[in-house]
Amino acid sequence: MAELLAHTIRAGLHQAANPADAPAMVAYMKGVQPFLGVKTPARREIVRAALKGYPDRTERFAAAAELWQGEYREERYMALDILAKSRLTVADLPVLEGMLPACNWWDLLDTLMGLIGRVLTLHPELRREKVRLWRQSDHLWTRRAAILAQLHAKSQTDTALLSETIAALKHEKEFFIQKAIGWALREYAKTDADWVRQSVNELGLSGLARREALKHVGEDFERRRGRL
């Protein structure tokens, strides 16, 4: 049945393909994988319709695993769409974590971390364990995962873990690491702007990471709003 679900989704994907849109999509993702030219709303509708007849989680996960190995980028997106429509628990973490090595660009990694982050927020001890492991990885995108693991945790953010993770990775010149550091801090600034301002200085952040972190809470921003 899982094979039939994957086949149904692929059939819908090919039917909705627009070859005229594919080159721009490939270019936007720097040519990491071929595209069929199916935009997000149409792609998600195909998945939504297909899943109606497949309530079983085992079948859904098996179909997602098959699509994750797909030739086209939209197939991988659809694998994540399937998982996003499942009630993910800590028992699913091995499957989700096992997808990290196949992430080869920000689009897959950031979407996957949105799913993993929701699970880990409910399990802070496990979150600390995983983040400390990921940040030592040789795989760029797994290191980025360590930074983004708490992106939407808000008041449940482990600030000590975030700070030590940034301290461990801040020396990397890689754009996607610096961008992730700034993004994580900028997002947490919505919860505690003062902590972010202080941490940016204590961590000695500069350049891209600093600009991103302080984009909405830095002195220049406050001055423009007449608060300084």
TrEMBL record:
It comes from the Bacteria. SUPFAM superfamilies: ARM repeat. This is DNA alkylation repair protein. The lineage of its organism: Bacteria, Thermotogati, Deinococcota, Deinococci, Deinococcales.
